[in-house]
Amino acid sequence: MLLIIGAVVVVACVLGGYVLHGGNLAVLWQPTEILIIGGAAVGSFIIANPLHTVKEVFQACIRLLTGSPFNKSYYMDLLSLLYEVFDKSRKQGVMAIEEDIDNPESSQIFSRYPAIMKSKHLLDFITDYLRIISSGNMAPHELEGMMENEIENRQHELEEPAHAVNKIADALPGLGIVAAVLGIVITMGFLTEGPEKIGLSVAAALVGTFLGIWMGYGFVGPTSIALEHAAKYELKAYECVKSAIVATVSGQAPQMAIEFGRKALPTEKRPGFQELNDHVRSK
């Protein structure tokens, strides 16, 4: 919703100010300039990025429009899931959770949290380290180091779409200049046509510069920043899991272990202590 509101504000303020200043909106409609700038931007984006990054960018942009799943409700479900697993392991032994982590789809614990089940990478992260705990006697600091390495790799993967979009935002003003230069080249052929024809042609060329800068700094650049924020909230889920698992391996009770995880969450989306406690009990 904020993405749409921001885009509307950008369009309304820029075009509204232009009209109030006496500008003619029809002059800004230059389909060929849009084709040059937009087509070159898409082409350079495809050249610069591997196929998986191209797919991830489109998927990430769709998630921006539909809303990120990594909100307070998601984090509470994540902590409740970890509590249930830790509690079962503490009461029935580590071997009791083997079936749950080997087949989370058929697990009574995991199946109660469909939002977590949809996050395949995070689900694999959880089950992999629970499996390590159940199969070996790894020291907490060794486990924490291994988890931090994987989280760092995941961070690079999650930030790839934002970096790819940001590079296109940086290139758009230059592509706008390309469109403007081509427009001036065309204008050179109208030197004998009179000042009115030349003026319209120069105006069309300058629109290319305007569109490149406007798209780069008004839309594509802010979108890359929004993608960075979305990646940050997903990464916090991994850090939450890491803190909780390391705490339980260190001998903390399930309730205290998920408290370590809760403290790793961003303040604006972190559930309160009693709020989380009530949620865990309700599950």
Protein model, in words:
By secondary structure, the protein is mainly α. The protein is built from 12 helices and no strands. The chain has one domain (29-282). The protein has helices at 2-20, 25-28, 31-48, 51-66, 72-92, 98-102, 114-118, 120-135, 140-187, 195-249, 254-263, 273-282. Helix 5 (72-92) packs antiparallel against helix 11 (254-263). The protein is elongated. The model has no long low-confidence stretch (mean pLDDT 92). It is found in: Cell membrane; Membrane.
Task: State the order of secondary-structure elements, H for helix, E for strand.
Answer: HHHHHHHHHHHH
Alpha carbon gyration radius: 26 Å
Q: Which range does the strand content fall in?
A: under 5%
Main sheet specs: none
Query: Whole-Å distance between the termini?
Result: 30 Å
Total domain modules: 1
Structural class: mainly alpha
Helix content: over 70%
Low-pLDDT windows of residues: none
Gross morphology is elongated
Strand segment count: 0
**Individual helix count:** 12
Mean pLDDT: 92
Based on the model shown, name its key terms.
mainly alpha; 12 helices
Short overview:
With 283 residues, the protein is an all-alpha fold. 80% of the residues lie in helices and 0% in strands. The mean pLDDT is 92.
